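Re: Re: ligand-bound prediction request (bumping)

Still looking for help on this. To restate: I need the protein modeled with protoporphyrin IX containing FE bound, output as structure tokens. Inputs repeated here so nobody has to scroll up.
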Amino acid sequence: MRIEPWLRRLLYATLATLFATGAVWWWLDEGAAARPTLLALHGLAAMLSLLALGAVAVLHARASWSRRRNRSSGVIVACSLAVLVTTAFALYYAGQETLRDLASLVHLVAGLALPLILLVHISLGIRSRRALDDDDW
Ligand code: HEM
Ligand code: HEM
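Reply:
Sorry for the wait, this slipped through. Here it is.
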């Protein structure tokens, strides 16, 4: 099921902001003046993205799942997002340093990989749409 335009815009805007602020934060030197602002923007985008992802779960993932369309790459997208959200939680609340360092590394790797994972999901999804008859969905 296609994601309706307002939701698609919100999803892309928040995920792009998350990617840009996270990647630039990582690329800058420790102690760089822009780092705290980037992380605050990242946190704001993270909260808004959860709003979008909740709607995507109910409106897009559930409907596509029951139509058996693009299931495997959809599950991979959902799992990557679950890893990102769980490690983000650990970044806030893990007291132990080794656990926090691990969460930081896993979060970064999953975050840098997300655009590619999403791109594969979208192209496979579009291809599966073309394979359908118009009155099939
Ligand atoms: C889209 C790709 C993403 C990238 C490249 C990315 C990257 C990063 C990086 C580099 C950090 C700093 C890690 C550290 O402090 O050691 C971070 C922190 C964080 N990220 Fe992400 N992230 C992404 C997506 C997400 C998502 C989807 C969420 C949650 C919905 C999220 C929530 C957070 C939170 C809450 C923090 C902690 C902020 C703080 O310490 O103030 N990120 N992220
Ligand atoms: C079990 C989970 C999922 C399934 C079965 C699924 C299935 C699909 C299908 C069939 C399409 C092609 C839609 C069309 O154009 O006809 C698609 C596209 C798309 N999916 Fe998913 N998806 C899942 C999870 C997700 C999640 C969690 C996200 C959130 C990031 C997501 C984001 C997108 C986007 C952005 C598109 C392309 C834009 C659009 O269709 O409007 N999907 N997906």
